[in-house]
Amino acid sequence: xxxxxxxxxxxxxxxxxxxxxxxxxxxxxxxxxxxxxxxxxxxxxxxxxxxxxxxxxxxxxxxxxxxxxxxxxxxxxxxxxxxxxxxxxxxxxxxxxxxxxxxxxxxxxxxxxxxxxxxxxxxxxxxxxxxxxxxxxxxxxxxxxxxxxxxxxxxxxxxxxxxxxxxxxxxxxxxxxxx
Length: 179
Known about the structure:
It contains eight helices and two strands, in the order ααααααββαα. By secondary structure, it is an alpha+beta fold.
């Protein structure tokens, strides 16, 4: 089944941020009903197939697939913080950092100059360099979910519940016959 022009626009807009409501609004559906139209469109088999096809084509074009994502996450998790420092323990200039660190592992760098004296006699005596790292635990969680080890899946185990309904039913019968 062919998509309407508005459905095709919805597919394009949905791929931008994967937000069905916002995609519906940007595709020209009413703001008042977009929260219902978005999910309805996602449930439409033709729209779903178009989204899936577009995702595959985008993945082929960028050469980013599940294996690439997993390899990237592993490289980020295994990146050695020591690679950011000189043998003397000073922070290396950013252009000397390994590429993996420059591509998002460091969330920020702050450099404060330490001064001594006042007025014209004030001189810089040192620098305080601070780096803020991105969340490595989150990367481990993503790896755990990706490889299906369930390392970060909430699990609730209840023991002794097998046959509980039967035992309750028998207990009710006993108490009913006692009275």
